[in-house]
Amino acid sequence: MNREDFSILKEQVHGRPLVYLDNAATSQKPQQVLDAIIDAYTHWNSNIHRGVHHLSQVATMHHEEARKAVAAFINAQSSDEIIFTKGTTDSLNALAFSFGEACIHEGDEIIVSGLEHHSNIVPWQMLCERKKAVLKPIPLHEDLSIDLAAFKHLLSTRTKLVSIAHVSNVLGTIQPIEEIIRLAHEQHIPVCIDGAQSVPHLRVDVQSLDCDFLAFSGHKMYGPTGIGVLYGKREWLEKLPPHEGGGEMINHVRWSGTTYNELPYKFEAGTPNFIGSYALQKAVEYMQSIGLEAIENHERELTAYCEAQLQTVEGVQIYAPKQPKAGVISFNIYNAQTLIHPFDIGTLLDQQGIAVRTGHHCAEPLIDTMGVPGTVRVSFGLYNDKNDVDTFIAALQKAIQILK
Ligand code: PLP
Fold it and tell me: Which residues of the chain have pLDDT under 50?
């Protein structure tokens, strides 16, 4: 799909045509996004919000138009609910600090799941340490799906927040977040969704999900690095204090104290990444021009095709096979009973021009549960096709022959 928009896909790696299957780590950028960045720096670069001069007003207009575009993309009620951050990690840290200051006290509990990325564990651990609160992971079934019965038992009057990945970055599995949100809301507990691996692949509608917060990264959805989003329902964002101080986030500063700006600026201290927000808007428009359903269908079909092809490889173990997935597959290869180290597979694939990721994928608690040193992970973007899968499978067979 639309491969011609991504010049990087024509690169050679070790003398072979690049096959890029590391999209869960970061996606490639279409020419439309690259052009937007050049255009911005060439024609209207200027600091936003403070200037009366023309360029500043143009830059401000672009930043605020980007906010509206992102709000529409996830169907937020208002663009005031969109806070630009550096990425998912930054969004979750901002929320952990701000929510923690306002709502977490000694003995309170925060629930995550057993398959989270470190970004959705460590900020909550740091908060819990600060506030003497308790972080509780939802256990997983043997098939690595979330144990919803156990989740129900974890919920109590002590629970102050549930924060959960929509799609696992290791397994690609789509989590039952609708049910999780419903169960939490029954007890008036807010829910934060880590959308790093879902927003680039699925239609995410914050109003129909009714999630209270959503975090995601621009660079995983064909946009640039250094820009991301924290969505929050207005009633929550109004209640929460800013997590950083500085310019832009203030109303008035006096020696006697400071009053804070209105939403969303209260949470955007300092010069925001206004070139990044503009380029993110172009990425959003790019995805919309293809259609979210078309992207989702294409990637679902490709994932199923790849999983079927992988099943034919001797000694393969695919994790969470057959569960609904969004563009990610993790596996290992066994030679008789012995695991071939994923790093060795990754290295031999790289020598054949195939980019995959190996290791713990920043989800060590999940990898520990799986009882392996890591996995090989292939992850798709809209531009991947069956040729990529066929080339990858042939290269994998070759790597296995060498390592046996
Ligand atoms: N959450 C999940 C599920 C992820 O996959 C990632 C990145 O891989 C992150 C959070 C962190 O994203 P970023 O590094 O863009 O902040």
Answer: none
